[in-house]
Amino acid sequence: MGTQNTSAPPRAQSAATDNPTRTRRHGGGITHDNTRHTTRFVVIGNHLVQHKELSLLAIGLGCHLQSLPTGAGADIKSLAARFPEGPTRIAAALRELETHGYLRRERHRPESGRIVTRTVSCNQPNASLREPADTGCPPAKRTPPAPRRTGHKALPAVPQPGSTAPALLQTALDLLADLRRRDARLLLSATDTAHLVPGVAAWLERDVAPSAVRHALTAGLPDEPLRRPAALLAHRLADRLPPPPFRGTPSVAVPPPRHPLQNCAGCDRGFRAPDPDSRCRDCRAASHP
């Protein structure tokens, strides 16, 4: 009763129990082979190494700064000499750390009288929110961080109509909303549609029929998927804009010819006539009672 079956293999432990970082579904992902540090190590918070807004260079530089001993060089020149990224990228990474509270730069005037800048590495991001100590120095000028690239380019400009009549804009809006029925790739967002409506209205007020505008926007589209359909439509609206319609000019009345002065052959009275031997109106009437 108490004899165990020693030939039965022991039950394998769950991979999730051995290492919770393994992916449960297919066992992929990262695993760790860790050895406990007893000397020469620094504690870094996950809020820094897994920060969702900092660049990889800023995260690595923040970890390096927290590992430096007090008094080590942490200015741009010293860091550029230590790493291959160069002063421009290192300066940008330092600004990122400063923006998110992992770095402070304080100006001090020691006994020598020369103002020096001290770099403070913060292992908690809210540490930089504390009021800096009064050092007797003017506040340091800080360069605002460079804007982050979103990867979305602005749409090309479209022609602008001379009229903003509601009926004209509504016709343009309906035309754009109907494009997806002809080609599913031309499904536009509300923002893209608002950008394109003035361009379509500019075509319509030039006496271009809606069917002709629709054909100009959808004819000859490439077969591959459209990465930015709104940009393609904006380019066509500007590049293929027809000229304004010819309205014509009003006809100008031609003035009657001005004949030279003549002397009447009957009464010698001066009057204007095309022939030199013609008679005036009174003489002609007398000769034909």
What would your notes on this structure say?
The structure is a single chain. The chain is mainly α and 289 residues long. Among the domains are: 46-129, Winged helix-like DNA-binding domain superfamily/Winged helix DNA-binding domain (Arc Repressor Mutant, subunit A), CATH 1.10.10; 166-239, no CATH class; 261-289. Helices cover 34% and strands 6% of the residues. It has a two-stranded antiparallel ribbon with strand order 1-2. A two-stranded antiparallel ribbon has the order 3-4. Strand 3 (261-263) and strand 4 form a beta hairpin. Helix 3 (56-67) packs across helix 5, helix 6 (166-177) packs across helix 8 (190-204) and helix 8 runs parallel beside helix 10 (229-239). The radius of gyration is 43 Å and the shape is elongated. Residues 1-23 and 128-137 have low confidence and may be disordered.
Summarize the structure.
This protein has about 290 residues and is mainly alpha-helical. The protein has eleven helices and four strands. Helix content is about 35%, strand content about 5%.
CATH superfamily label of the domain at 46-129: Winged helix-like DNA-binding domain superfamily/Winged helix DNA-binding domain
* Separation of the first and last Cα atoms: 161 Å
Give me the number of helical elements. Answer: 11
Q: Which shape, going by the Cα principal axes?
A: elongated
- SSE-based structural type: mainly alpha
Question: Could you list the spans in which at least 5 consecutive residues all have pLDDT below 50?
Answer: 1-23, 128-137
The major β-sheet equals: 2 strands, antiparallel
Strand content: 5-15%
